Amino acid sequence: MIVSQNRSTRIRVEGRECLYFGGTNYLGLAHRPEIIEAMNQAFATYGLSSGASRLTSGETELLISLEAELSDFASCESALVLGAGFMTNQAVVEALDDDIDGWLVSNLAHGSIKTALSQSLKPVTLYEAGREAEARESIARDLRLGVFVEPIEPLTGSLANLDALASTLSPADILILDEAHSLGVLGAEGQGAASCFDRGAADLKGELIRTGTLSKAFGCYGGIILGSSNLISRVKALSPCYKSSTSLPPPLCAAARQALTLVREKTTTVTPLQANIESLNHRLAEIGIESHRNNSVPIYYLEDSPSVARLRDELLDRGIYIPLVTSYFADYCHIGLRWTIQAGHSEDDLDFLVSQLII
User: Fold this and answer.
1) Among 190, 231, 180, 277, which residue's Cα sits nearest to residue 76?
2) What was the pLDDT predicted at 99?
3) Residue 314 CA: distances (Å) to CA of 80, 114, 317, 319
4) pLDDT tens digits, 79-130
5) pTM for the whole structure
6) DSSP string for residues in 255-301
């Protein structure tokens, strides 16, 4: 399907104007006028690209300010911004590979994690999705592991049991949370999965590192690494991914800073998103589609079946566009229907969606 216009909850696809329940613009920030204005002002001052790596002249004041604001938002010592979210896990692996004995990762991990680990010199152990705690317990305690976890599973929206996993880690282990889908979404303030540990992330036995992206809930672009000052220093010293890439363009830095401001305000971002999720879960239960979770995740998924493609086409005819997922999640399913909701969807939008989800 070719998109010719996207306005958050409305989209023009294959010449049709449709209600849109896809993508990852969860907070609707990609189209906020405040963000576009901030980006335009930076564009007028700096141009489109920094045109350089951070080791030369790519270290802009906007980028430095963005990193400081991200570390404050995420309540961590330090933050590092890269050119794309896909780069962040690569940079972390490059920085840590010499310090650990092996890696532990889900068999359904995102491609950015699997690609990064394919270049590691250390053994990689796969665990069945949702059984990360058992997997760690099965490995010798004297081995120092880097443990990758996606708090929100990108296809189905299911949550990892972070507290169960945390209780199995040794003090030497390093927990890497890929928060691509949870930053800006989970937690009362949208601060992500680390704020949702029952015991508190600060009680982890080992080191905590968080990776993520500005291209989903924040509506912008760029990759994020959140962690200790020592970790960020190691990435800068050891990661070719960091050292050899052009820094994030100044207009996108300015846009991301404005996005952070709006997320902090909550009233037009995190709060309405979480209200929409609660409302949709209630509506789905009323028609017999039970949500597989009781949490604030804006991702929904219909299992692989022959009727899925037909339902997508029928919904499109009725003015609703939900993308099919196929090759992107090839390790999980042949074909599926994955829909997402945004802060900007109205009650009428949700009513119309549910009224059409009858297979």
Assistant:
1) 231
2) 95
3) 44, 35, 5, 9
4) 999 999 999 999 999 999 999 999 999 988 999 999 999 999 999 999 987 7
5) 0.93
6) HHHHHHHHHHH-TTTHHHHHHHHHHHHHHHHHTT---S--S---EEE
